[in-house]
Design goal:
globular; alpha+beta; 3-stranded mixed β-sheet; Arc Repressor Mutant, subunit A; about 140 residues; two-stranded antiparallel ribbon; 5 helices; Dna Ligase, domain 1; about 20% strand; single chain
């Protein structure tokens, strides 16, 4: 993916910091927090601030190329995958995994006459790696 072009296509000026933040989101796919993005990029971009990361993510959300993942009340994470999918959070290691989920199969009978704008599926438990390491 040409990230600069992708940003431009969505009316976002592709500055170096914006490109690097989106590149991190898109390539790592680790559903990072603002702090995690900052810690991983500040060595490469010494002028980067947490405020810049936050403002850039807000812009990405406003332009529809990033979404928030809020599984825990006190933790906002970010996702560059915009196709419909759910998330699994490991309660042991804290990792978040994308899961395929067919939203067409969700019974929405109770919502007839409503306009659904967003659907989120969050599952919690222990991931395979944590279960394997326990044994």
């Amino acid at each position: 993916m040409n990230i600069a072009q992708h940003l431009s296509t969505h009316d976002i000026k592709p500055s170096y910091q914006r490109i690097k933040i989106y590149e991190y989101l898109y390539e790592k796919m680790n559903h990072p927090t603002v702090d995690l993005i900052y810690k991983n990029l500040v060595g490469e971009i010494p002028t980067l601030s947490k405020t810049t990361v936050y403002n850039t993510l807000k812009l990405f959300i406003d332009k529809g190329i990033t979404s928030t993942v809020t599984i825990e009340d006190n933790e906002v994470r970010y996702d560059a995958i915009m196709d419909a999918h759910g998330h699994f959070k490991c309660t042991a290691c804290g990792a978040i995994y994308d899961i395929k989920y067919d939203f067409k199969d969700v019974a929405m009978n109770e919502l007839k006459g409503f306009e659904v704008k967003e659907t989120q599926v969050h599952v919690k438990g222990k991931c395979n790696q944590c279960l394997t390491n326990k044994n």
